[in-house]
């Protein structure tokens, strides 16, 4: 009897030693100007399974308060103290760019939830460890500029954040407009925490554009549009996918009516054709998310985080074949497995990663949407 007991204890010990928790570090903007983006990202990740391929998943969630310095501090903690096997985040472009050096030094695969193409390209030894689940601005700018061309826009005014997000969109829209034959007649900038953009809007109005493009995200993206409404400046307004949350609609109110932007199909999943590859995954996430956080609460930012999880969950069993969690070898194996994603269906489209493309989305991951009666409507 004693022998059987000792054998059982020994087998249990061997089983425990054979398994090691997988630490998933998460950095998000849960407070500050980008909180309306970071909170749904966090909510989505709380829906992730606690076990994958028999291994326990530890989510270590840190708040960067929408600040790049905090994001770097958090990244150093996850890499150096928590020994994260993979990192998800952060939310904003400036913070994501600031983290790249730390990620490279820690050789830790990271799936960013920021939008800028500069997070993953041009590919170099540092971005080798960086991935993201948001379409590049160039792809969305191309679709947006084409919509402008087809609807008679000849001259376009631009106002965007005075940070990396605004820089990326200014560059992308400049190129896209040139290709579409749309003249970009003015570029104005503002800060995420600014309370007035009257001077910038007056300058844009003086140029008499046919439409205005706002390169902002979250609730601060409402300020230029509300200012235009206050000044009686009635032209079509285009925005970026950064406005796709209910807080923007709440703050912008009736002034958001008619806004148009390019975004992933997730936002209008119920309006997609049944043949769209992402529709099922999108509707499944919406149902799960809203069962936990309330009707109408799902947003594209929850989708971004969930798609990052899809990549991680797919990569873990592959990496476990060659290495043990908590080791440099496992981190490298996870990185390689993420990069090997082929025809991976997410809530937004289909991902095909390559060594030079750490985003992997194609035209199946973008649609035009407008605000109509305070809701999102697919533009067909």
Task: Describe the protein.
The chain has 380 residues and is an alpha/beta fold. The chain is 42% helix and 18% strand. It contains twelve helices and 15 strands. The protein has helices at 2-18, 35-45, 68-80, 93-106, 137-150, 164-180, 198-206, 222-230, 246-252, 279-293, 300-320, 328-339; strands at 22-28, 51-52, 55-63, 86-89, 110-112, 130-132, 155-161, 183-190, 211-215, 237-238, 260-263, 344-345, 350-351, 367-372, 375-379. Helix 2 crosses helix 11 and helix 11 (300-320) packs across helix 12 (328-339). The longest helix has 21 residues, at 300-320. The model is unreliable at 11-18 (pLDDT under 50).
Quaternary status of these chains? single chain
User: How confident is the prediction overall: mean pLDDT?
Assistant: 94
β-strand amount: 15-25%
pLDDT below 50 for ≥5 consecutive residues: which ranges? Answer: 11-18
What is the overall shape?
A: globular
Helix/strand-derived category reads alpha/beta
